Amino acid sequence: MTRKVRVAIGLTTLICLICLPYLVDAHDAFFPHHRDDLRKDEMRLTVVFITVGFVIVLGAIFYVVLRGETEESQRTRESEEDRLEGAANEAAHVGRAKLLERGTPEATIHAALAAYAERVEADWNPTSVLVEGNAIRCQIGGDVVVIRIFEQADTKKIEVKASRENVTTGSVLDAVVDR
């Protein structure tokens, strides 16, 4: 369950609890016996216990439902992160190997994209991507992939970032090329 859904449920619950005294008062106008029950000493404790018990059971139900969704969404997020991280690492290693072969940045990016697509088992047409320069951002399957080749302190590096929905991961590898 996403954060927005949890906030919406919490806000709805809060609004209902704020409006509850009005509804109880309106109910009491039609059924005055509830007011009489609270005024009787022998019934007061029973009514309070029943009300507290109902609120505790309702709170426990909300907690169990929200907690179960949170654990499931956490497991899904972790597996999605592992999948993206593995694919990004694979693409970075293939790109690094291409850089070590003194490949052009365009050829390196194409090789890395092909490796990423193969790892995630997505259909990808290499001719559908026109690479000009040292970086690209494209979509493979449902993943957004960013590949960048840059130089830092006389060392060429390749960076591959992959993201899907709220999960983002990446890999940066050095490619020491003799000059």
Short description:
This protein is α+β, with helices and mostly antiparallel strands and 179 residues long. The protein has helices at residues 3-30, 33-39, 41-100, 105-119; strands at residues 135-140, 143-152, 155-164, 167-175.
Termini Cα gap: 52 Å
Query: Could you spell the SSE succession in H and E letters?
Result: HHHHEEEE
Shape: rod-shaped
The assigned structural class equals: alpha+beta
Order of strands across the main sheet: 1-2-3-4
Rg calc = 29 Å
Overall helicity? 55-70%
Overall number of strands: 4
Low-confidence stretches: none
Question: What summary fits the major beta sheet?
Answer: 4 strands, antiparallel
Mean pLDDT rating: 79
Number of helices: 4
Strand percentage: 15-25%
Report on this structure.
By secondary structure, this protein is α+β, with helices and mostly antiparallel strands. The protein is built from 4 helices and 4 strands. The chain has helices at residues 3-30, 33-39, 41-100, 105-119; strands spanning 135-140, 143-152, 155-164, 167-175. It has a 4-stranded antiparallel sheet with strand order 1-2-3-4, with helices on one face. The chain is rod-shaped, with a radius of gyration of 29 Å. The model has no long low-confidence stretch (mean pLDDT 79).
